[in-house]
Write a structure and sequence with these properties.
The chain has helices at residues 3-34, 36-39, 46-82, 85-91, 96-138, 219-222, 269-298, 310-321, 325-330, 334-400, 407-431, 437-441, 443-460, 468-500, and strands at 150-151, 157-164, 171-178, 187-198, 204-217, 234-247. Helix content is 64%, strand content 12%. It is extended, with a radius of gyration of 36 Å. It contains 14 helices and 6 strands.
Length: 501
C-alpha cells in the first residue's frame, strides 16, 4: 500500500467509526422511545436493561451503517476538496478513481461484513430482542400507589389513597374498585386504612383493609334469583378487617425464544430458502386440491377428477351442447323461472363463499412466503446499499468540496430520507402482494444506483454540476430546442389544416 492509500484509509475509517456511533446513538434513542412504556416503572434489573440495549443496537445497524458510510464518504472527500488536497492529487496526475480505489476495497470488505452480520448475527439478536420485549410487556409494573389519584397498575382494580405513611406503609382513606369479573359485576370497597403485602414467591398481592364497607353489584346473581330477591340492587357489607388476595406476579418471566423459531426474522439465507420452498409446495398442493374440489362439485358432478376419463368429459360437453339455455328458459312458466333463478343465485353464492374460503386458506401460505422472501432480499439489499451510498457520498463530497459536519450532514439526511421513503414504499408494496418481492425490496437500489453512477461520472470528469452558469447554458440550449420543435409543430399543423380544407 502507498502512503496515499494509508492516508485516505485512516481519514475515512476514523470518520466512519465516528459517524457510525453517532447514527447508532440517534437511531437507538428513537427505538428506545418507541418502547419506553415497556421499560419505565417495571422495576427491571440493570442487567436486563443492558441486555435490551445491546440487542437494540444490533437491530438498528441495518439503518445506521449505510447512513454512516454516506456521511463519512461525504466528509472525507469534502475535507479533501476544501483543503485543496483533492486538487493537488489531480494536478499530480492521480485520477478520482485511483483516489477512491483503497476506499472501494475497504467498502467491499464492509459490504461482505454487513451481509455476514445480517445473515448470522441479526437473526439471533432479533429473536432475543423480541423475546425480551414480549417479556417486558408481560412484566407487572412496580407497585407505587400515588396519593390523591387513582392507580390502575393492578389488573382488574382501581385504587385511590388519600394519604399514606412512607415509614410504616399504612394507607389511609382508601377506595377500591374491583371490576375483575367485569364492569357489570363490579364492587366498591371503602376503608379507613389498609396495608399491602406480597407473598413469599412474589406471585400474589395481599390487600388488608380496616374499618370499612363493601358494596357489590348483584346484577349477575339476579338472573338466578327468585322473584322476591329481584328487588335487591346490591349487597352491603361492613367489616372491621378484610383481606383480599390478588394475582400480581412481580417476577420477571422470560418469554420463550422457541415461539419465534419459525419466524422470518430468526432465519439465515439457507433456512429462508428451505422454508420458502417447502411452503410453496404445500401451497401448490392446497391450490390443486381446491381447484379439483370446485370442478368436481360444480361442473362435472361429484365424482373425483382422477377417476374420470377423457370420453366421459367429452360426453358431458356434447350433452351440454345439445341444449340452448335461452330456449330452455323461455319454455318455463313464471314460477319455474323464479325457482330456476333462485337456485342459480344460491349456487353462485355458495360457489363464491367456497372460493373466498379457499382464498383465505391460501392467503396464510402466501403471506408466510412473502415475509420470508422479503427477509431473504433484505439480507442482500443492506450490503448493496452500503456500496451505493459510498458512490453517492464520495463524488458528492468531491463536487461540493464542503467538509465538517455542516453541509455533509444536511445532504446525508436528505439523501437518506429519500432512500428510506423509497425503501419503505417498496417494502409495503411487496408485503401487500401488489409487487413481486424482489422488485419491492430492490426498488431503492434501482433508483439510487443510476444517481450514484451519474455523480461518480460527473466528479471524475470535473463536470460543473453545481455551477449556475453551466446550468444556465444548458437551460438556454434546452429552450432553443423546445422553441425549434414548437415552430416545426406549428408548421406541420398549418400544412395539415390546408390539406384538410
Amino acid at each position: 500500500m502507498k502512503k496515499l492509500d494509508i492516508y485516505l484509509l485512516k481519514h475515512f475509517l476514523g470518520l466512519l467509526v465516528m459517524t457510525f456511533l453517532i447514527c447508532i446513538f440517534i437511531l437507538l434513542m428513537q427505538f428506545v422511545w418507541m418502547h419506553i412504556k415497556d421499560l419505565v416503572g417495571k422495576g427491571v434489573e440493570i442487567k436486563v436493561l443492558a441486555e435490551f440495549f445491546i440487542y437494540a443496537v444490533t437491530s438498528v445497524v441495518p439503518l445506521a451503517l449505510p447512513l454512516a458510510i454516506l456521511l463519512a464518504s461525504l466528509m472525507t472527500f469534502g475535507n479533501l476538496g476544501e483543503k485543496f488536497e483533492l486538487t493537488a492529487m489531480k494536478a499530480a496526475g492521480v485520477s478520482l478513481f485511483r483516489i477512491m480505489r483503497p476506499l472501494v476495497v475497504a467498502i467491499g470488505f464492509i459490504c461482505v461484513g454487513a451481509f455476514l452480520f445480517s445473515n448470522y448475527v441479526l437473526p439471533v439478536s432479533q429473536v432475543k430482542l423480541w423475546a425480551l420485549v414480549f417479556s417486558l410487556k408481560q412484566k407487572s409494573p412496580e407497585l407505587d400507589i400515588p396519593q390523591g389519584e387513582f392507580y390502575d397498575g393492578i389488573e382488574g382494580y382501581n385504587l385511590y389513597v388519600r394519604h399514606k405513611n412512607p415509614k410504616t406503609g399504612m394507607l389511609y382513606d382508601m377506595m377500591i374498585y374491583d371490576y375483575s369479573d367485569g364492569f357489570r359485576n363490579a364492587s366498591v370497597m371503602l376503608a379507613d386504612s389498609g396495608q399491602i403485602y406480597f407473598s413469599a414467591d412474589n406471585k400474589y398481592l395481599l390487600l388488608v383493609l380496616y374499618s370499612g364497607e363493601a358494596f357489590e353489584n348483584l346484577d349477575r346473581k339476579q338472573q338466578r334469583a327468585t322473584s322476591s330477591e329481584k328487588n335487591i340492587p346490591y349487597r352491603r357489607e361492613s367489616f372491621a378487617s378484610k383481606q383480599i388476595l390478588i394475582d400480581f406476579d412481580m417476577d420477571f418471566n422470560r418469554y420463550s425464544e422457541d415461539v419465534l423459531a419459525d419466524q422470518h426474522v430468526s432465519k439465515d439465507v439457507s433456512k429462508l430458502i428451505e422454508s420458502i420452498d417447502s411452503v410453496k409446495v404445500l401451497a401448490h398442493i392446497r391450490s390443486n386440491e381446491q381447484s379439483e374440489q370446485l370442478v368436481n362439485n360444480n361442473y362435472f358432478g361429484r365424482e373425483r377428477v382422477e377417476n374420470r376419463n377423457v370420453d366421459a368429459l367429452e360426453g358431458a360437453k356434447d350433452l351440454y351442447a345439445q341444449y340452448e339455455v335461452d330456449s330452455l328458459y323461455s319454455r318455463f312458466s313464471d314460477d319455474e323461472r323464479y325457482r330456476a333463478a333462485s337456485a342459480a343465485v344460491d349456487r353462485a353464492k355458495g360457489m363464491k363463499d367456497k372460493i373466498d374460503y379457499n382464498a383465505l386458506m391460501l392467503d396464510d401460505h402466501q403471506r408466510y412466503i412473502r415475509k420470508h422472501e422479503i427477509e431473504l432480499h433484505r439480507k442482500f439489499t443492506l450490503a448493496f446499499a452500503c456500496l451505493i451510498f459510498f458512490f453517492i457520498g464520495a463524488p458528492l463530497g468531491a463536487i461540493t468540496r464542503k467538509g465538517g459536519l455542516g453541509a455533509p450532514v444536511v445532504i446525508s439526511v436528505v439523501m437518506f430520507i429519500v432512500y428510506y421513503i423509497i425503501d419503505n414504499t417498496g417494502y409495503k408494496m411487496a408485503r401487500e402482494a401488489l409487487w413481486p418481492c424482489w422488485s419491492g425490496m430492490w426498488l431503492s437500489s434501482m433508483v439510487l444506483l443510476p444517481i450514484g453512477i451519474f455523480l461518480t461520472y460527473t466528479a471524475a470528469t470535473d463536470s460543473p454540476l453545481f455551477n449556475p452558469e453551466a446550468w444556465m447554458k444548458y437551460i438556454h440550449k434546452l429552450k432553443k430546442i423546445v422553441l425549434y420543435i414548437w415552430k416545426q409543430l406549428k408548421k406541420q399543423s398549418k400544412i395539415f389544416a390546408k390539406v384538410n380544407s
